[in-house]
Amino acid sequence: MAARTHLARIERAIPSCTRCPELRAYCAEVARAKRKAFESWEYWGRPVPGIGDAAASIWIVGLAPAAHGANRTGRVFTGDRSGDFLYAALHRAGLANQPTSVSRDDGLALSGVYVSAALRCAPPANKPKPHELGNCSTYLDEEEHALRGWRVILALGSIAWGSALAMLERRGVAGFRPKPKFGHGARVALDEGRSLIGCYHVSQQNTFTGVLTPAMIDEVLAQAKRFARG
């Protein structure tokens, strides 16, 4: 109950964050202009909180909301091809009750997993700046504190990997010298039997070109589940 209450407080606070005025302005402009395919939508246009199980043993950290995905729907990895790929994989792994994620009220429920991102606003060209990631870093810190039962962090892409490593050092979970390199399936053993695991990002750039296939993400999720069980 305490973890759920703490996470709910974080999730309520994130949408009103104003630490990066340039990102707030960009997200609002995207929401105003819209994409023709979504012209009937009322865009979220604000920072996007995480979602999932407060008792999660697996914590997935992505890059950032997509301009016409989570920035439109208000839910992380929802409403775009990246989310389609991720939630289909979570469903196959038994971590989601359905394989699709199209809106905040579509009935999606996660079990044993929590999903958030290194950056909570959609960045132009999907390229966050270092100071923007720094401004958002305390939300990862707060989530780590709230997700008391996490055993595995699954970082989607090198930016999420770097943000997770920095968060773990700030939280005193581990110190890294030299810094572990990102790779698909790479694993860093942490204290108390916990793990950081890398996975190529679920972006269309990777999934449409075969850099990341369904079989590859299924294997990484299976690895995460094994280490989460201890």
Essential attributes:
single chain, 230 residues, alpha/beta
Structure description:
There is one protein chain. The chain is of the alpha/beta class and 230 residues long. It has a single domain, classed as Uracil-DNA glycosylase-like domain (Uracil-DNA Glycosylase, subunit E). It is 40% helix and 11% strand. It has a 6-stranded mixed sheet, with helices on both faces.
How many structural domains are formed by the residues? 1
Share of helix among residues? 25-40%
Low-confidence residue ranges: none
What is the C-level CATH assignment? Alpha Beta
What share of residues are in beta strands? 5-15%
Mean pLDDT: 96
With helices defined by DSSP (H or I, 4 residues minimum), what is the helix count?
A: 8
CATH architecture: 3-Layer(aba) Sandwich
CATH superfamily: Uracil-DNA glycosylase-like domain
